[in-house]
Amino acid sequence: MNAINPEKIEPVEDDNLAAVSEVEAGIRDFVRNDVAYLRRPASGVVSSSTPELPMDSSTEATVNSVNSLIQRVAGTSLSEIENLVSELESLRDLLHAEGQRVQREISGYAQLSQAAMKSTRLIADNVAQWKRTADGLRHD
Asked: Is residue 24 a contact partner of residue 65, using CB atoms and an 8 Å limit?
């Protein structure tokens, strides 16, 4: 298994904090631009159907920026999750193989135990026969 190195944890946390701060700043900017767009007076007649909101270049740039930040943060997390899943799968395979090995060992010990019991019974029966024979010879 892998040992956790505390020196490797801190830079990852700093990167995550920086990425989270960037995402939060991008979301804040996006919300400000979106709210500002909603506060502007409409320059036309609003229809009863769902209107499509036109995006100006700054809003579109903000959306793209937020999307790229989220993808960057999610990409790191996804790669870590994929690595963890890979490690867990290899551990599952190892445990499965070890479980099969232990079952084979137990089966071998069970067979050995049965053979020992049969041998012990056979020896006990032979000793009892010899004892009876010896007792019979003494009485004669």
From this structure: no
Answer for the pair 72, 94: CB distance below 8 angstroms, yes or no: no
Q: Mean pLDDT throughout 95-102?
A: 97
d(CA 99, CA 97): 5
Residue 32 near residue 54 (C-beta atoms within 8 A): no
The encoded tokens of residue 1 equal 């298994």
In terms of Cβ atoms closer than 10 Å to its own Cβ (0-12, 13-18, 19+), residue 62 is buried
Question: Which residues, at least 6 apart from 26, have a Cβ–Cβ distance to it below 8 Å?
Answer: 62, 65, 66, 69
Q: Which two three-digit tokens encode residue 19? A: 């990425």
Angle between helices 57-139 and 6-39 (to 10 degrees): 140
What pTM value is reported for the model? 0.41
CA distance 101 to 111: 15
How does pLDDT run across 47-78, given as a tens digit for each residue? 444 444 555 677 787 888 888 878 777 777 88
| Residue reference for tokens 């899943």 | 85
